[in-house]
Design goal:
- By secondary structure, this protein is α+β, with helices and mostly antiparallel strands.
- The protein folds into four domains: 2-67, no CATH class; 73-146, GMP Synthetase, Chain A, domain 3 (2-Layer Sandwich), CATH 3.30.300; 150-206, no CATH class; 218-272, SH3 type barrels, CATH 2.30.30.
- It has helices spanning 69-96, 127-137, 148-155, 166-169, 179-184, 191-194, 209-218, 260-272; strands at 2-8, 16-18, 30-35, 38-51, 65-66, 101-107, 113-119, 140-145, 225-228, 231-239, 244-249, 256-259.
- The strands form three sheets. A five-stranded antiparallel sheet has the order 2-1-4-3-5, with no helix packed on it.
- A hairpin with a 7-residue loop joins strand 1 and strand 2.
- Helix 1 (69-96) crosses helix 2 (127-137).
- It is elongated and about 85 Å long.
- Residues 61-146 form the PSP1 C-terminal domain.
- It holds the Pfam family PSP1.
- This is Signal peptidase II.
Length: 279
């Protein structure tokens, strides 16, 4: 086991692990770390804990030190300067006639590098833009193309539920989301109703998906013949989370709701007695 701390470079960002050395860090502490040959300020998301070596990167770098008040103020100045740089860079992009949308600009803590994050429909030849930006800001320039989900994470916003976007408030990493999840949950397949601000399927489709999958494995499917306390019938509706079956009994027009567990008990008893179910 190895003692580590987990840090984030931005709110709801991916968690990276570093060695704390002999220091005990607290949640939300600001620390200085080194990554990709540059210094960054990060915030502690996971205080000192033990982890298995195989779950960690091969090279575990040490935390440089707990950030001082002066360093925290410097970081705030970097953020303010980055906002001004964003405006300048957008104008430069317009001058170069590039079809790209600049989303975010950040300085490394030591201002040795500026990172410009953008979205675009395809590949962009930004070599001349990089030269221009380097001439203006007098530091190393990195342009990083990101996806629309990353853009939503950085910019934030209000989702269809009326709350702030999950990705910009607490989701550290994006998880795969599929249209099958919406189908399993009985949701409308209208793209406008199951898509987030990014235009992709909403991340929250994943939250209850395991429960729906478990329920589908346990319960009879639509159209299946079952035995109920009131006789045989056919499943015409499912409420997977509540474990409620809507069943149309043989010879009746109106469907009736039954507790799935109650139906399963009757089914087992019917099978034990050698009875066959006919809808």
């Amino acid at each position: 086991m190895v003692e580590v701390i987990g840090v984030r470079y931005r709110r709801a960002g991916h968690i990276y692990y570093f060695s704390p050395g002999q220091t005990k860090f607290a949640y939300d502490d600001y620390v200085l770390v080194e990554s990709q040959q540059a210094k960054y300020m990060a915030q502690v998301a996971i205080p000192n804990k033990e982890m298995a070596a195989e779950d960690l990167p091969e090279e575990l770098k040490p935390v440089l030190h707990l950030a001082t008040e002066a360093e925290i103020l410097q970081n705030e100045r970097n953020k303010a300067d980055a906002k001004e740089a964003l405006v300048i860079a957008k104008e430069k992009i317009k001058q170069h006639g590039l079809k790209m949308k600049l989303v975010d600009v950040e300085y490394t803590f030591d201002r040795g590098k500026m990172i410009f994050q953008f979205t675009a429909d395809g590949r962009i030849d930004f070599r001349e833009l990089v030269k221009d930006l380097a001439g203006v800001f007098r530091t190393r320039i990195e342009l990083r193309q990101i996806g629309v989900r990353d853009e939503a994470k950085i910019l934030g916003g209000i989702g269809p539920c009326g709350r702030q976007l999950c990705c910009s408030t607490f989701l550290g990493d994006f998880v795969p989301v599929s249209i099958k999840m919406a189908k399993d949950q009985g949701l409308s397949l209208n793209p406008t109703k199951i898509s987030g601000l990014c235009g992709r399927l909403m991340c929250c489709l994943k939250y209850e998906n395991d429960e729906y999958e478990a329920a589908k494995r346990e319960l009879p499917d639509y159209g299946e013949n079952v035995m109920t306390p009131d006789g045989p019938g056919r499943v015409v509706g499912l409420n997977l989370l509540s474990r409620v079956l809507k069943i149309r009994l043989t010879g009746r027009e109106v469907a009736v709701d039954y507790d799935a567990e109650e139906v399963q008990k009757v089914q087992k008893a019917a099978k034990a007695g050698g009875k066959h179910v006919h809808g």
